[in-house]
Design goal:
Number of helices: 4
Radius of gyration: 24 Å
Distance between the termini: 95 Å
Helix content: 55-70%
Shape: elongated
Number of strands: 0
Order of helices and strands: HHHH
Structural class: mainly alpha
């Protein structure tokens, strides 16, 4: 025997709103992109700082050191960003680039980071 309740609608308070799978996938990709930037930006920064140290040892002028630092930082970060670009993951790529930019902005503005003097002090020459 069929119950009388089987055909009734569930009251509005009991219904659950479900998030669509495309929104879930976009949020997941955004989280993965943010994690990619959080893990790869320090690596790019440390490699670029190693380049600063080498340039100081070679006694290069300050403007040459800074231009090589920024070039190295951007190129190494771009190599990491090639991974989501190659795999055709635009949301992950966008969020990774955005978080890397926000990390750099926070480092420069909030922590007043200078690539040469913060770690190595004033140039010895």
């Amino acid at each position: 025997m069929l119950s009388g309740r089987s055909w009734r609608r569930v009251p509005a308070a009991r219904r659950r709103r479900k998030v669509s799978p495309s929104v879930k996938a976009a949020i997941e990709e955004a989280i993965y992109g943010s994690l990619l930037a959080l893990f790869t930006f320090p690596i790019s920064l440390f490699i670029a700082e190693l380049g600063v140290w080498v340039m100081i040892v070679w006694m290069q002028p300050l403007d040459f050191i800074l231009s090589n630092f920024y070039l190295t930082l951007v190129l190494i970060q771009a190599l990491f960003l090639l991974i989501p670009a190659y795999n055709k993951q635009p949301i992950r790529l966008l969020f990774a680039a955005l978080v890397a930019y926000l990390l750099w902005t926070a480092l420069v503005s909030l922590a007043s980071f200078d690539p040469v003097t913060t770690l190595f002090g004033k140039l010895p020459y």
